[in-house]
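Contributing: when you submit paired examples, paste them exactly as shown. First protein:
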Amino acid sequence: MADRPVAVEPVDETPLVRRFRLYSISVVVLGLLAALLVSWWLPPTTHTNLVWTGVLLIAGFLVAEQLAINVDVRSGVSWSISFTEIPLAIGLFVAPFELVLLAHVVAGVSTLIIRGVHDRVLYNAGVLILEISTAFAVLHAFNLGLDGFGPPWAGVFVGAFAAPPPKPYTGLLRGFGSA
């Protein structure tokens, strides 16, 4: 008689875990909606042959994530201070929105998986999407407001510094930090 497979015992989820999962899904949906709206709003780009740009942006985001500083706020909750604004600013100058978004999400999610922070991947993926969407939306709005006047780097500067706020704001809305 064949051995029966061992049944996997269901994980006893607390209401807190279920609420955080639901909240994480809502952050991802909000991020995807923001990304779609920003992609629709931005003017079309005619960039070609962006393979090396994408690879270098992923490498830049990975290095920035490895240099991140983790601050424990309380037990189980920590904030990461990373230097992703540097590759983000480069991406704002040289790459289309979709490529920078893909590079940032691939690097950020990969870093979380390597660090073993599996329970926060979904939440952080949504926040990463919101960060890049915010940066490109602010860049485009700022450039529209300048109407061709001013230095071209001013919009990149403002866009890069507008990117980080979604992370603490989404964490504060729910009372959870990100790893």
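Second protein:
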Amino acid sequence: MATIVLRGRGDLSRIADGLLEGVLANGMSCELVEQTERTVGDARIAFLVFEKFYYRASNRLSLSALLIEQGGVIDATLVGAGGGQGPLLRFDWGSEENFAGVGAEVLEGLGFTRV
């Protein structure tokens, strides 16, 4: 599992749409599995889940993105997971870090910085 945390500013819906567009442009096998937005108190939350087939890992990986906007600041947590081969091996050939990095690059292009 690979986790990257970033922080930025902007409109949550616009940032989520930018992340969606950027991640999907990463490859033919990449797809959006789920997307939802909620408001809880004064916080707005977006959650996106992507899947992509990685040939080097011979497996589908997931990228989960949690965006929380509160007080004009958006905190983003990106988690790449699922790259291990077989029931016992967790070796993923760097694919989990790579998929999380794709999301991070998109958000950095939208003005976010790693925390």
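If you have annotations for the second protein, write them as plain sentences, like these:
The two ends are 18 Å apart (CA to CA).
The chain is about 25% helix and 45% strand.
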